[in-house]
C-alpha cells in the first residue's frame, strides 16, 4: 500500500514539477490581450520601471511603520498633444499583457522600426514610450502597442509612472536617417 502511494505521489510530483521548456515570455504594453500567435499568461496594470502588475495580487505581511521603503505607482498615458497616439487616452491608466510564445524563440524589441528584419516575425508594433526626459526618476523605454487600450475606471491624474512618446533629436543621432522631433516607432519580433 505504501509503495503504491509513493508511486502515485511520484507521478503527481513529476506532473506538477514539469515545466514546459522552450517558451518565451514577453510583455505587450498598452494592451490587455496577446496577438493570435501567443498565449495570454496574465493581463494586468502597468506600473513603475515598468512592471506588469497582475490583476489579482497576493499579499503576505504588512509593516505599517517603515519610513524607508520603495513605492510602486500605476502608469498613465501622457499624450494630450499627440497626433499619433489617441489623445483621448491622456491620463488613462496603461494596461499590459504578459504573453507566451510556445516556439521558444527569443523576443527582441527593435526601436525606430515598423517591420522586423529578415528572418524575424512581427509580434506587434507601436511607439516607443518612456518617462519625461527632465524628470529626476530614471526611465525604461517600452514598446507600446500602436492601438493602445486603457483600463476601465482608470482615469485619474496621479502622475505615478508616466508614458510619454519618445522623440529623436538630431546632433547625437545621424540625420537625415533619423528625423528631428519625430516619435520613435518600435516593433517586437521573434525568430520565425
Topology, element by element:
Layout: H1 2-17, E1 24-29, E2 39-46, E3 52-54, E4 75-77, E5 95-101, E6 107-111, E7 120-130, E8 142-145, E9 161-165, E10 185-191
Parallel strand pairs: 4-9
Antiparallel strand pairs: 1-5, 2-3, 2-5, 6-10, 7-8, 7-9, 7-10
In words, what does this structure look like?
- By secondary structure, this protein is mainly β.
- The protein has one domain.
- It contains one helix and ten strands; from the N terminus they run αββββββββββ.
- A hairpin with a 5-residue loop joins β2 and β3 (52-54).
- It is globular, with a radius of gyration of 21 Å.
- It starts with a helix and ends with a strand.
- Mean pLDDT is 81; it is low at 1-20.
Quick overview of this protein structure:
With 192 residues, the chain is mainly beta.
What distinguishing features does this structure have?
single chain; 192 residues; mainly beta; six-stranded mixed sheet; four-stranded antiparallel sheet; 10 strands; globular; disordered N terminus
Please indicate the count of domains.
1
The largest pleated sheet is described as: 6 strands, mixed
β-strand amount: 25-35%
Q: What percentage of residues falls in helices of 4 or more residues?
A: under 10%
Structural class of the secondary elements? mainly beta
Task: Determine Rg (CA atoms, Å).
Answer: 21 Å
In terms of per-residue confidence, which ranges show pLDDT below 50 for 5 or more consecutive residues?
A: 1-20
User: What would the principal axes of the Cα set say about the shape?
Assistant: globular
User: Total helix count?
Assistant: 1
Distance between the termini: 51 Å
Helix/strand order: HEEEEEEEEEE
Number of strands: 10
Mean pLDDT: 81
